[in-house]
Amino acid sequence: MGIRLIASDLDGTLLTDKKEISEMTRRTLEETARRGICFVPATGRSFSAVPKEVLGLPNTEYVIISNGAAIYSLSQGKRIYECILDPKAVTSILSKEKPAGMVMEVFMDGVPYSGQDYVENPKAYGATDYGAAYVKRTRRPVADISHFAMENRHRLDSITFVGGTPAFREDFRHSLLTDVPGIYVTSSVSHLLEIGNENAGKGNTLLKLLELLQISPEEAMAFGDADNDISMLSAVKYGIAMGNGTETCKEAAYSVTDTNEKDGVAKAVLQYLANNS
């Protein structure tokens, strides 16, 4: 069986460090589209924060967002599947005391919301220059993020905690997993804790999409670089980690390709096409 679908994480995977799609990657995806292979972005980002150039890639109809909280159909302009947080889990999360220096973001209906103080000064919470610009460009500020989350607890795709020391984050992760049922906790980058429904995750949601499209996991390829990509790489036959990926991501992968800065996605796809032409 040949490959019929390629799913890919964005940051650190499909996109370069400048958050761009390289010319080689673009040409490669044009070739896969000519062969009828679907391309599915699968990201921890909210839908509104997915770059337009990604949404415009050839043969891209579906997008997995917020670490598997939902699938969007671009032609229909709406969600076709969602697995959002249970309101009881949200209430439990909000009742916990956050470590010092940590801020909360909530994702709802494909849009990210953050506290106004964080949006105004992301660098105070450890954001890089690019990260600060990204937060200011994509986040909708609210005066009281905890109150906002509680008011909308029936509608949240996911919750993210940003910042804090590594030790505090690990203690908080353990506390969340111990005390809050019905969730999973993952990280796309080291300074984030990303919380979703226990039945979400990129892997489970990708399997839902494959079932919808009547494509088997043996006919799918997936790319990722971080711990939040592991379930997706494990869900399909060809789960490929980036050369710049975490060690746990690489250990879970079928194989490891080059880095995002050196067209790792394109190289792995081209190698597969050459071996199966």
Describe the structure using short key phrases.
277 residues; alpha/beta; Rossmann fold; Hypothetical Protein, Haloacid Dehalogenase-like Hydrolase, Chain: A, domain 2; 2 domains; 6-stranded mixed β-sheet; 14 strands; 23% strand
- Helical element count? 12
Distance between the termini: 12 Å
| β-sheet strand percentage | 15-25%
| Lateral strand order in the biggest sheet | 8-7-6-9-11-10
- Profile the largest sheet: 6 strands, mixed
Unreliable spans: none
Number of domains: 2
The CATH topology annotation of the largest domain reads as Rossmann fold
What's the arrangement of secondary structure elements?
Elements: E1 5-8, H1 10-14, H2 23-34, E2 38-41, H3 52-55, E3 62-65, E4 70-73, E5 78-82, H4 87-95, E6 102-108, E7 111-115, H5 116-120, H6 129-138, E8 140-142, H7 145-151, E9 156-163, H8 166-179, E10 183-186, E11 192-197, H9 202-213, E12 220-224, H10 230-235, E13 238-241, H11 247-252, E14 255-256, H12 264-275
Parallel strand pairs: 1-2, 1-12, 7-8, 12-13, 13-14
Antiparallel strand pairs: 3-4, 4-5, 6-7, 6-9, 9-11, 10-11
Helix pairs in contact: 2-12
Can you describe this structure?
By secondary structure, this protein is an alpha/beta fold. It folds into two domains: 5-83 and 201-275, Rossmann fold; 87-197, Hypothetical Protein, Haloacid Dehalogenase-like Hydrolase, Chain: A, domain 2, CATH 3.30.1240.10. It contains twelve helices and 14 strands. The chain has helices spanning 10-14, 23-34, 52-55, 87-95, 116-120, 129-138, 145-151, 166-179, 202-213, 230-235, 247-252, 264-275, and strands at residues 5-8, 38-41, 62-65, 70-73, 78-82, 102-108, 111-115, 140-142, 156-163, 183-186, 192-197, 220-224, 238-241, 255-256. The strands form three sheets. The protein has a six-stranded mixed sheet with strand order 8-7-6-9-11-10. Helix 2 (23-34) packs parallel to helix 12 (264-275). The longest helix is centred in the middle third of the chain and has 14 residues, at 166-179. It is globular. The termini are close together. The mean pLDDT is 95.
